[in-house]
Amino acid sequence: MLSTNLYNNIDLSRKREQQIDTLKVFNENVTEISFDKEYSVEFPTKAGNLSLVIDLGPKFPFEKPTMKICPRITHKWVDTTGEIVLAPGLMNYTIHSDLGRVVQVIRREFELDQSLTLANGGNNNGFSGNVAIGSAKNAITSLTNDAEFFSLAKLTSAELLRLNNNVDCLDEFIAELPSIEASNKNIENTITKIMDLANSNMSKEEPICNLRLEISKQLETIETYQKSYAGLSAKYVKLSEKYSPQSISDHLKKAALKCDEESERMAEQFLNGDIDCDKFLQVYVKSRTVSYTRKAKEDRLNYQLKQLKEAGF
Q: How far apart are CA 177 and CA 185, in angstroms?
């Protein structure tokens, strides 16, 4: 199996390649001075053509790169050796930053600065800590129009060193910045709104449960009505079929035939001498009268149905 160190080396190499790719994507005229270590970016400014040299340390991108401007210029971001020390993107550089975008911002700052001039002389061989802090403080003082740097401009050299060496003090200083305080206030307001919304939703839980129970009861009632409706619909279909004009006509025809059969049976009994004349006449006449009446009704109904059919009903 590969060791943990080998995994870390592979991950570091991959991240370096990704950062170098962003440098080439977001900037033009990128020259490779030393493979995977040193690169330069050339660009024109009011003071003339400048070259930004980027030195990628062995732990890059886990540590920020070193950048120098050649020839040396006078600018609030540049110290006496030409190294860029106060560019915001470089000062706040993390593994999640894009090298190409950081360089792009620095390059555009120099390209758009109409007051940019070349430095006149100066010690380029390095400087002590006190000189560096003094130079940094002077550069920060020039940024007093920026709300974030205004707080730094009021600090002494000792306070700046303390912030640089003590993480707790730095965190406390950052927490007191106006933008951070505003962000924290917005977060607190958002949390308060979320809590109010959550409480409002919780207060609606009981009414919603009651409505759910009421809906369940209503659904049971609807189900009962549906069953009743189904039974009544079946009954209606049977009755509508029974009392339809055609059904009535058929029933009249059957009833008339039944009366005819009854009268014929009575006539046979009379001829056979089974019943007397008075009873025969009484029953026979009545049966024939009912038969003729039903046939007349059947004929009349069939005639009306025919007329309705011809009329399109």
A: 12
Which residue stretches of the chain are H helix?
Answer: 4-26, 88-91, 99-112, 129-141, 147-153, 157-165, 167-175, 178-203, 205-242, 245-271, 277-310
- Name the nearest CA neighbour of 141 among 132, 129, 149: 149
DSSP structure class, residue 48: E
Q: Give the span between the Cα atoms of 177 and 193, in whole angstroms.
A: 24
Q: State in Å, rounded, how far the first CA of the chain is from the last one.
A: 92
Nearest to 107 by CA among 61, 22, 42: 42
> What is the spatial distance between Cα 182 and Cα 188, in angstroms, rounded to a whole number?
10
Instruction: For 106-147, write each residue's pLDDT tens digit.
Output: 999 999 888 888 886 444 443 334 434 444 444 444 444 455
Task: Tell me the pLDDT tens digit for each residue of 30-65.
Answer: 999 988 899 999 999 988 899 999 999 988 888 899
Strand partners, 34: 38
Output the pTM of the full model.
0.38
